[in-house]
């Protein structure tokens, strides 16, 4: 086996997701994943710290989320920042990946430890967005409320998007969800 | 030592909170807690499943939260439900306990495992409120958004309340926080 495996990361991800779906997350071992992918455990640990990281990927989304907010037009008010910021996240991280994200969400939903990790990931995204709003000059209290609301809207819209089979883009569902939230607390 | 200890639960809580504050949560053992309280470990386990339960208490708040929503006046629209429902929770669970809740929050903030448990508790409260809104006849999407928003408002207002030294009731801060949220996403 050569030291450099083309597409090793993708092959490991595919093998891992298949096995998690077949046997459950906690019953799947790293050697089983590498055996199915035809790669070594050493290669696995060059790409992932552990098998949980196959599900959640790196943490770079959070820093990127804060940067996206800072890059949006200066004329955007707080509400426009939520819509535009979340649409940018949708474009960068979700569009075109529905089947794969649906598979990952299904694996997470069936495992307690993964659900906990998912809650921590959600809290980390919220904290990154809060920092982004503060960097835009928004006060501490509204920045926190906007960050929490952004995360609520994103997670709700993503669940709706994953449950659908039509071609409506996630960014449309994000805008609808934000409108629904606004209406419901009027 | 007699089998029935008056105020055993309260004495165990006090001893545990003192030790968690002095030594940290993870370094404190159940025998240390019972030694300080002058009670047996057997008595401890009659009152608490483990030392985490001293911090978080039982789970009855969640069922109660859903019931509170159902009991509110039929004339309350969704937005009034948040304000009235959260004020009822504030009255039942928070008012008059600020020093003790501040101590608990400080212990949670310093321990990773407790922070995770706190996130799960928050998610469970959100789910209970969602159920309560659905029982009020509110549709699935607004029920979810109202539940998420309620939890955001409650946690934000509680942090503000814990940070203050004046006598403003938590229910005032809840209403102000809900107004601030509404204004920020207009």
UniProtKB/TrEMBL annotation, chains A, B:
Annotated region of DNA binding: 29-48
Source organism superkingdom: Bacteria
GO molecular function, one term: DNA-binding transcription factor activity
Residue span, HTH tetR-type domain: 6-66
InterPro entries, sorted: DNA-bd_HTH_TetR-type_CS, Homeodomain-like_sf, HTH-type_TetR-like_transc_reg, HTH_TetR
PROSITE patterns cross-referenced by the UniProt entry: HTH_TETR_1, HTH_TETR_2
UniProt keyword list: DNA-binding, Transcription, Transcription regulation
Listed PANTHER family: HTH-TYPE TRANSCRIPTIONAL REGULATOR RUTR, MYCOFACTOCIN BIOSYNTHESIS TRANSCRIPTIONAL REGULATOR MFTR-RELATED
Protein name, per record: TetR family transcriptional regulator
């Amino acid at each position: 086996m050569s030291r450099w495996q083309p597409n090793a990361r993708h092959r490991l991800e595919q093998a891992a997701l298949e096995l998690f779906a077949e046997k459950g997350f906690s019953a799947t071992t790293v050697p089983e994943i590498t055996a199915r992918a035809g790669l070594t455990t050493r290669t696995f640990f060059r790409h992932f710290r552990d098998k949980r990281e196959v599900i959640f990927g790196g943490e770079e989304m959070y820093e990127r989320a804060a940067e996206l907010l800072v890059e949006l037009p200066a004329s955007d008010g707080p509400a426009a920042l939520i819509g535009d910021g979340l649409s940018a996240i949708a474009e960068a991280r979700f569009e075109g990946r529905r089947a794969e994200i649906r598979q990952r969400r299904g694996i997470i939903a069936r495992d307690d430890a993964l659900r906990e990790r998912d809650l921590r990931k959600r809290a980390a995204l919220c904290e990154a967005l809060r920092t982004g709003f503060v960097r835009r000059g928004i006060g501490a209290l509204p920045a926190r409320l906007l960050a929490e609301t952004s995360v609520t809207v994103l997670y709700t819209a993503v669940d709706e998007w994953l449950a659908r089979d039509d071609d409506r883009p996630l960014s449309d569902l994000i805008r609808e969800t934000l409108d629904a939230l606004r209406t419901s607390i009027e």
